[in-house]
């Protein structure tokens, strides 16, 4: 099985409502046991300062929590993106793909310059063995390359369209799909 770890799932019109409507999911893990990711374009109306005050200086704007997904919504996880040429991996950081990795929120907050940015997510999205592959085959998701900048977007509300617009094939036409096709 080819792993989709480190890639983005972009919701199609087959997902008509709910937490995954127009979502962009970064896949942290994907193997024969299933998949785990976080929704990167759903900022919450809760500041990091409210739940993790020691981390407020480490997160990139907007300094809010993000809805990572419907699983374990009362737990937090963080993704950190390294600078282009880090001298070493920061303490408490575990690489997922390229310059992106999980940040241990139980460790001391990182030093200035350790990361280009950190995002904190409440909950995550999870799939059992074969479930994600079935959803991709049913055209619920488009699988595209991730850019670390997607995880740091200062405008997460427009990320769905931005990711689709940069695609080099017919997928880019999805970026023009109306919010409600009945209004078209």
Describe the model.
With 184 residues, the protein is mainly beta. It has one domain (7-183): VC0467-like. The protein has four helices and ten strands. Strands 1, 2, 3, 4, 5, 6, 7, 8, 9 and 10 form a ten-stranded mixed beta sheet that branches. Strand 7 and strand 8 form a beta hairpin.
Secondary structure elements and pairings:
Elements lengths: L6 E5 L12 E8 L2 E6 L3 E5 H4 L12 E4 L3 E11 L11 E5 L2 E4 L13 E11 L3 H7 L3 E5 L2 H4 L7 H7 L19
Parallel strand pairs: 5-9
Antiparallel strand pairs: 1-2, 1-10, 2-3, 3-9, 4-5, 6-8, 6-9, 7-8
User: How many domain modules?
Assistant: 1
N-end to C-end Cα span: 39 Å
CATH class: Alpha Beta
Q: What's the SSE pattern?
A: EEEEHEEEEEHEHH
Proportion of beta-strand residues: 25-35%
What helical percentage do the residues reach? 10-25%
The CATH superfamily is known as VC0467-like
| Proper CATH architecture | 3-Layer(aba) Sandwich
What is the typical, i.e. mean, pLDDT?
Answer: 90
User: How many strands in all?
Assistant: 10
Biggest sheet record: 10 strands, mixed
What is the CATH third-level topology name? VC0467-like
Protein name: UPF0301 protein HMPREF0063_11852
Organism: Aeromicrobium marinum DSM 15272
InterPro entries: AlgH-like (IPR003774)
Family: Belongs to the UPF0301 (AlgH) family.
């Amino acid at each position: 099985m080819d792993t989709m770890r480190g890639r983005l799932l972009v919701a199609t019109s087959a997902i008509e409502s709910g937490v995954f409507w127009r979502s962009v999911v970064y896949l942290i893990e994907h193997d024969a046991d299933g998949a785990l990711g976080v929704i990167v374009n759903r900022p919450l109306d809760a500041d990091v300062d409210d739940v993790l005050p020691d981390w407020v200086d480490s997160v990139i704007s907007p300094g809010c929590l993000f809805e990572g997904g419907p699983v374990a919504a009362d737990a937090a996880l963080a993704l950190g993106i390294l600078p282009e040429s880090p001298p070493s991996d920061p303490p408490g950081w575990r690489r997922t793909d390229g310059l992106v990795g999980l940040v241990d929120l139980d460790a001391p907050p990182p030093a200035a310059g350790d990361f280009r940015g950190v995002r904190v997510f409440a909950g995550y999205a999870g799939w059992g063995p074969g479930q994600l592959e079935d959803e991709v085959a049913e055209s619920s998701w488009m699988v595209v390359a991730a850019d670390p900048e997607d995880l740091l977007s200062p405008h997460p509300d427009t990320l769905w369209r931005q990711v689709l617009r940069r695609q080099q094939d017919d997928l880019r036409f999805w970026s023009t799909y109306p919010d409600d096709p009945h209004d078209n």
